Amino acid sequence: AHSTTQATNALLEGDVCPVGIISVGSGIEGARVKQEANISGFKFENGKKLETFHVHLDFADLDEVRVNAVIDELIKGGAKSIVAVQAFSVENPKYEKYVSELAAKKGIPAVGTYEISGLLGLKVRTRTAVINASIMPKMLETANATEASIKKFGIKAPLMIMRSDGGVMSIDQMKKRPILTILSGPAAGVASALLYVKISNGIFLEVGGTSTDIALIRNGKALIKSAQIGGHKVFLRTL
What we know:
Layout: H1 6-13, E1 19-24, H2 27-36, E2 42-43, E3 49-50, E4 52-57, H3 64-77, E5 81-86, H4 94-105, E6 110-112, H5 122-134, H6 136-152, E7 160-162, E8 168-170, H7 171-176, H8 184-197, E9 202-207, E10 212-218, E11 221-222, E12 225-229, E13 232-238
Parallel strand pairs: 1-4, 1-5, 5-6
Antiparallel strand pairs: 2-3, 7-8, 9-10, 10-11, 12-13
């Protein structure tokens, strides 16, 4: 099980890539999607910005030629990853899948909001997906390098990645949802404090080169809360 602070460091330092957002929808619902999917002006604590480019498509415009043209336009504008957005995609992700699959065929990291959270809040779900997409290229490099190193040393056990809530996930899941690794370094430390030091009540601090991370252990359990990044709520549970 590998814990990493790379995602945390990328967000603290604003070391993120520009993200292209493609929202789809028609009528009143489409107007709402167009408005709430336009995630812009996102700033990190150090003043750096997450650059986004947004294009909205009506359901009638979702032929392959048109979608590919929009993806090419976003890439030409500087986007390094793509987020597909559709209302109620957690119930039926048909159009998000369609858009993200076409983007993936062009070799650009892509994700639908339904892959990030099963919750319905469209704006927060989109914001979470955009932040996730902004660190995908860098985290894909890390995942591939880590996986290659494990194989090089002849380790046959499956490689698992620590999550921000203290659980683990497969390397393939991490490649799609790197946002779940935020604060996974401290998560591993808290697990050690619980298992080996037998702390039942205490404040746990982990000091590194970029940040000091603080967790609370109460009655033998690490407390978990909804995360905020840059002062914005996201659909992510962290220690």
